[in-house]
Amino acid sequence: MHRIEVRSIVPDARANVRKAHLAKVGFPNITSVEVVDVYTIDAQLKQSLAGIASMLANPITQHAMVDLPQDVGTFDWALEIGFLPGVTDNVAATAKEGIEDLLKSNLPGVYTSQITFLNGTLSRQDVERIASALANPVIQRIHIKKYDEFVRDRGMDAIVPRVNLKADARAELVDVLTADDAELAVIGKQGIGNADGTRRGPLALDLTYMKTIQSYFRAKGRNPTDVELESIAQTWSEHCKHTIFADPLDDITDGLYHAYIKRATYEIRESRKRKGKDVCVSVFKDNSGAIAFDENWLITDKAETHNSPSALDPFGGSITGIVGVNRDAIGFGLGAKPILNRYGFCFADPTDAKPLYKGKTQKMLPPQMILEGVVQGVNAGGNCSGIPTPQGFLCFDERYKGKPLVFVGTVGLIPRTSAGRPSDYKSAKPGDYVVMVGGRVGKDGIHGATFSSEALDTGSPATAVQIGDPITQKKLSDAIVKEARDLGIYNSITDNGAGGLSCSVAEMARESGGCNVYLDKVPLKYPGLQPWEIWISESQERMTLAVAPYDWPHFEDLMKRRGVEATIIGEFTKSGKCVVAYNGKNVMDVDLEFLHDGLPPRPMQTKPVRQTHPEPVIPEQDLTQTLHRMLSRQNIASFEFISQQYDHEVQGTSVIKPLQGRGRVNGDASVIKPVFDSPKGVVVSQGINPSYSDIDTYHMAACAIDTSIRNAVAAGASLDHLALMDNFCWCSSTEPERLYQLKEAVRACYDVAVGFGTPFISGKDSMFNDFKGFDSEGKPVKISIPPTLLASSIGVIDDVTNAVSLDAKCAGDLVYILGVTHDELGASEYFAMHGAIGKNVPKVNILRNKKVYEALAGAVREGLIASAQGVGRGGLAVALAKTAMGGMLGMQVALDQVPGDALREDYALYSESQGRIMVTVNPKNAWVFEHRMNGIDYAPIGKVRDDKKFIIEGKTSSIATTVDALLSSYKSTFKEF
Hints:
Elements: E1 2-8, H1 13-24, E2 30-41, H2 49-56, E3 62-66, E4 77-83, H3 90-103, E5 110-120, H4 124-134, E6 140-146, H5 147-152, H6 181-190, H7 207-220, H8 226-236, H9 238-241, H10 243-246, H11 255-275, E7 280-282, E8 289-292, E9 297-305, H12 307-312, H13 314-330, E10 337-347, H14 367-383, E11 391-396, E12 405-415, E13 417-418, E14 421-422, E15 433-438, H15 448-451, H16 470-487, E16 492-495, H17 501-512, E17 515-518, H18 531-536, E18 542-547, H19 552-561, E19 566-572, E20 577-582, E21 585-591, H20 592-597, H21 623-631, H22 640-643, E22 654-656, E23 659-660, E24 665-666, E25 669-672, E26 681-687, H23 697-715, E27 722-729, H24 736-756, E28 760-766, E29 770-774, E30 780-784, E31 788-797, E32 814-818, H25 829-833, H26 846-861, E33 867-870, H27 875-887, E34 891-894, H28 905-910, E35 917-921, H29 926-932, E36 938-944, E37 949-953, E38 958-962, H30 963-970
Parallel strand pairs: 10-11, 17-20, 27-28, 34-37
Antiparallel strand pairs: 1-2, 1-3, 2-5, 4-5, 4-6, 7-8, 8-9, 9-12, 10-12, 13-14, 15-18, 15-19, 16-18, 17-19, 20-21, 22-25, 23-24, 25-26, 26-31, 27-31, 29-30, 32-35, 32-36, 33-35, 34-36, 37-38
């Protein structure tokens, strides 16, 4: 092996950032930091090393050393961090590809690591603490040396993190026929037993499921193999089958999904079809949902969560989430092009340094490290894939400390027809080859689906974490959606996501009626994987396709020329079975009907729960100081540090951007123009109000949907071309009280969607977002997230030149408020700032709000609106401040002109009543605008000033400040990130 070390010979920004970060986390006495990149090449090379080194280093700014350490002068400590064996190393993969191109030959392996040289008064214990702030022990190795040790050893030790597995790979029988209920329960919870007494990891199969499996194999007269049992577990997992939404609940025999979500969409579509206005094309049956864009194109949408993996490895969990949901677009129909990414992160306070422990000694990552890693992961996934990421949000609550919520979504674009066939239709045919394309299979991602169906506790396996490779996936994506699809050389495609091949192949087998798979033909990252591991691994960047034998030569040649690995691993049949072989021996033979539909219903009961909180007594406040405090709160403050590093200009489609106006204020909606020769645009937004669950989950869900719709309409969307997605993240979802809260939230989804006429086209749920472990004092703790619904909206605006941003445009423009302000501060940000919850949770008046949204949409189409901002978190005062900050123009508002019944001035300013939108209008358009608003509650409340004074006048007190001061408060919270 050889080791090439590369250091910068000019000031290294990474070293400065690292030094500042370490000072922030408790090490201000570090006087200097230097960073050296290391490439370890697992091969015997001699004459080529100089050429390789020159390729890996920039000769102007960097210096490379081959098989010798870099001379960085004197230092106190050297800290090397690299990946553990088997962990995806994207930089190493790119370096390996470059070296192989240079040498015109293959290499066994290339691995990267990084040395941080530290100067400062530090003990070894200090350096170990520094290592824990820079590295994640779940996926990374840490190596520390003092200066004299480094000199003595002539550098850091040479380590090749190869994966070494036993070569005896075979399927094993699992005795379920003679197992009693206790043993069945252990297998279902902890996994199949190993010879040494350990368990493989959770199957997430409760006793009811295990007994059903036992009965099935008793009828067959044999025990299942481990491949069969693992495969059934993946297919039946809550993550894949959404059993809590599907099972009977109280008197709802067909489950919450059918009774509320699906029924809402069905009724809305039937109503729209009668009017000739149904924009839905594909709902609930594919990797994404789809609506019409125009007569030639469809747009798809899908959002998912990657919560549990992101708690263990924030970077790996989030990058895998974003590239995984990209594949949901690629896997829609015959393949959609990803055109937009969206994100949403729910975290605990990043300044909270009190540790949690998964075991009594295994420390969980702190909130700040989770935040930074998640942000970085979505950055790498989106930016490296060439997909714009314009829209997202941050949400903070102490109950996300055990498990963060990491929402990621992708919008796709697909032609209505390709190669003479409807692009939204796909079907594997008997005789088609089962083809796996993209990345290879490893141990990463094993038990990912079942792991995410469990609470995070001491049994959570590290193998559940994957790290996505966006470069490999970008090549796959381009080869599929830019070429192969339009050549018509495959019949069906789907993502290798949760459950890996076990789910993707078995799902596609339903289209043809069966499948035969040969696991020994599956390309592996390294030898020694067991058959069950190959079958269920969730290693990333893989798609499964159905390719007709006569199309295979053309398909194989295209993939080879595009640098995408494609392998025949079986064929689709009409046998009615999923048959899997390894080295010529069948290791799985299960009826498709049982595999997909054999799981038994588990009737559940709810227990009504009402949460009551006293209305707080809050003394009258200095309104100016209060507004500055509100703008600096984590749930309201600027998250420009994220928006400015997520590329939103790639693909050249951006219209309404993530940071709006001269003040660069985070917007609640974004607009893109995805088709060059069409004036139409796509509007995306979202709504999330988890704190409202502390009072009532019905109103929490209703407000989330109303907010999502309101934000989209404020940007230019209209209700008649708008669709929704629901992403439920719940906790302790087998508890009757939590199920009652869930039922109420889903009931609200039906009521509000039907009321607004906005159908659901896709969704996803994550039901067990609980942490079970220990606090810093060793006491057992359970931390459950607040019941959370993310409601996402996607719509089409006919002409992007009518799209509206939030920033005030011109001095003299009139300021209007649409909608009514009530005393509705229950669970508001204002009450939270005072440590209270309250009881008057905001409620959605569908009929009134719908009139407001329809009236505004008409005004937008006529070009009457200069700016618009939905009134949401933080209330009217925050909405007014964002508009002023966005335009860097002052504002003068009379609070007593605001329609409503909020008696106190601070309540009128910070109430979070729904259905309100604040707009500015050019005075020359005022008469027409007010005429269009006839029949709704609205009022002119002020005007935009030609200076930077920001004044809100009340009868007894006022806000008097400047836009610059507001902006300083707004951008203060995360300025160090």
